[in-house]
């Protein structure tokens, strides 16, 4: 006959494994929520005029000595895509950043300020849903930790496990809804947002999932 402590030990091992996975999910969701890598892509912008001794393919230079003077009449002989350069950008719920031309670092702006006024309500709903998603994941983690430390009754432990599973499923549904609303707002911002922000190409980033 097997010792009665083995089923209890197995249950605690399963609960510990579930808690570990749920905790990792919570950490990843908080990291993604605070990041700006929900969407990544490029933005096509006109090359600036070269300043001073600037060289390279990221600016436009003329042969005349005063060709780069702001007071001189400047003629652009380049055609097609030669006049443009692609800047990488990434955006999240809170802010959007793009690389600087001929400079190191990035320029960041609030994504909420870029969103069309008519779509900001949907964006705030997405933020609220994402916050509830994180809160429910946290509640699920707390319940799982209680299950691990709860020794009184196997039945009570199963009840806690079932309730934490329901909470985790609700969190997943809220997360999907939040992501769908953000995607809708991002696409509307691509079409109707400021001219100096609209991306040329974009795709989902690592923190979107």
UniProtKB/TrEMBL annotation:
Gene3D superfamilies the record matches: 1.20.140.150
Main location: membrane
Coiled coil: none
Top-level division of the source organism's lineage: Eukaryota
InterPro entries registered for this protein in UniProt: GSG-1, PMP-22/EMP/MP20-like
UniProt keyword Transmembrane present: yes
GO cellular component, one term: plasma membrane
TM regions (residue ranges): 122-150, 162-182
Transmembrane among keywords: yes
Keywords annotated in UniProt: Cell membrane, Membrane, Synapse, Transmembrane, Transmembrane helix
Cellular location(s): Cell membrane; Synapse
Membrane topology summary: Multi-pass membrane protein
UniProt GO BP: regulation of cell communication; regulation of signaling; regulation of transport
Family: Belongs to the GSG1 family.
Name of the protein in question: Germ cell-specific gene 1-like protein
Species classification: Eukaryota, Metazoa, Chordata, Craniata, Vertebrata
